[in-house]
C-alpha cells in the first residue's frame, strides 16, 4: 500500500468528516460536524490517501497557549483519525511526520499540543505527557468546607443562561488563562461551538447546560457550567447528580462561592467534576478531602517542534546554564547539542560536551512545568554526565501553578 499525504482539497471536507466519524465510531448526528467546521482551519487539515480513497486525516488549530512565563503560539493538533480498514499500516505515522515537518517549515509555532484518545499513541512521535488532570466524584453530604474557607459579602450568586452569560464567562476565563500553563485562548467560534452548545446529543441523558455566576458590582468573578438531573432512590431519598463541565474563578472567594453553589444543589447527592487541575484548590477547601474520590488521567501532551525556540520561549523558576544533548528521530533538526541559559532564556547550538542527554518526548513532558525531570531520570529516561545537572534543569523547568488545558480540543 502506498500512502500519499497532502493538504485537504477544496471540496473534501465531507470526506474528512466521514473518515473521522468512522475512525472514532462516532455517535453524534452528522450535522454536528458543521459546528466543528466553524473551529477547524481547513487550510491546516492534512489527509492521507490510498489511491483515490481518503483513509486518514489530521488537523492543527492556531492557538495562543500559556506556557511558564506567558502565552506563546502553539499548534493544537486535533481530528486525527485513520479508517479501520487501514489501521496499523503506517497511515498515522505518515500524517504525523508530515505535520511535524510542516510545522517546522512554517515556523509559526515551536510547540505542538494535543489531547490523546489513548495514552500509548503519541510518545513515538516525540510527544510527552506534560499535564495531568483529576476527576472528582463528590458526595454532596460529605462536601462541607473547612472553617477557614473565604467569603466576600460583596459577591452574589446568580443563575444565568449560558449564552447570555458569555461576556462574563469570557471575562473570568481570560483573567485566569495567562497564569496557568496549558490554558489556551478561545475564539468566539470555540466558545459557541465547543463550550455552550446544548443539543440532545450534548446533554447525553442529563439536563440542559446550566450556569452559575458569582459577581459583584464590577461584574463576573467566577462561574460554573454544568448539567444536572434530579432523581430519587427506592426509599424516596433524593439522589440526583450534577456533572460539572467547567468551574473558573479569578479570586478565592468567588471560587469558593461557585463551588458551594454546585455542591449545595437541591435533590442532588453527587457531583461529578471531570478534568480538574491537579492542584485544584477544592482539595484545600473540603473539610474531608477523601470525599473527592479522585481519579488521575493524562491531560495535555506536548511536542517541542523546534527545541531551541521552544526552550527560549518559556520562563524558568531557577537559574540554569546547561548543555543538553537532544535525541529526536522524527524531527532530526532537533537532534544535537544545545546550550540553555535560563536568565536570558537563550538556547543555541554548541559543540561543548553535554551535561544531560534526553529524548525530546521527556523534554516535552517537562515543558509546561508539571512533570519533574527528576522523576523521568529516576525512570531511567535521562542520562546525567555532570553531577548536579539534572537537579539544576529539573528545578529550572518546574512551575507553579500546575499545567492544565481545561477542555479537550
Ligand atoms: C489528537 C487526536 O486527535 S487523538 C485521536 C486519535 N484517533 C483515534 O483514536 C481514532 C481511532 N483510531 C485511529 O484512527 C487509528 O487507530 C490511530 C490514528 C490511533 C492509529 O493510526 P494507524 O494508522 O493505525 O497508526 P500507524 O499504523 O501509523 O501506527 C504507528 C505505530 O503506533 C502504534 N499505534 C497505533 N495506534 C495505537 C494505539 N491506539 N495505541 C498504542 N499504539 C498504537 C502502532 O502499533 C505502530 O507501532 P509500531 O511503529 O511500533 O509498529
Automatic annotation (TrEMBL):
Task: Write out the GO MF terms.
Answer: aminoglycoside N-acetyltransferase activity
Name the InterPro entries for this protein.
Acetyltransf_17, Acetyltransferase_Eis, Acyl_CoA_acyltransferase, Eis_dom, GNAT_dom, NAcTrfase_Eis, SCP2_sterol-bd_dom_sf
| Signal peptide, first to last residue | none
What's the superkingdom here? Bacteria
Mark the transmembrane ranges.
none
The catalytic residues are: 122, 409
Q: Which UniProt keywords apply?
A: Acyltransferase, Transferase
Which residues does UniProt call coiled coil? none
Q: For binding acetyl-CoA, which residues are annotated in this chain's numbering?
A: 80-82, 88-93
Annotated ranges, domain N-acetyltransferase: 3-152
Query: Pfam families under this entry?
Result: Acetyltransf_17 (PF17668), Acetyltransf_9 (PF13527), SCP2_2 (PF13530)
One GO term under biological process is:
aminoglycoside antibiotic catabolic process
- Name the PANTHER family for this protein: N-ACETYLTRANSFERASE EIS (PTHR37817:SF1)
Family from the record: Belongs to the acetyltransferase Eis family.
- Subunit text: Homohexamer; trimer of dimers.
What protein name is recorded for this chain? UPF0256 protein
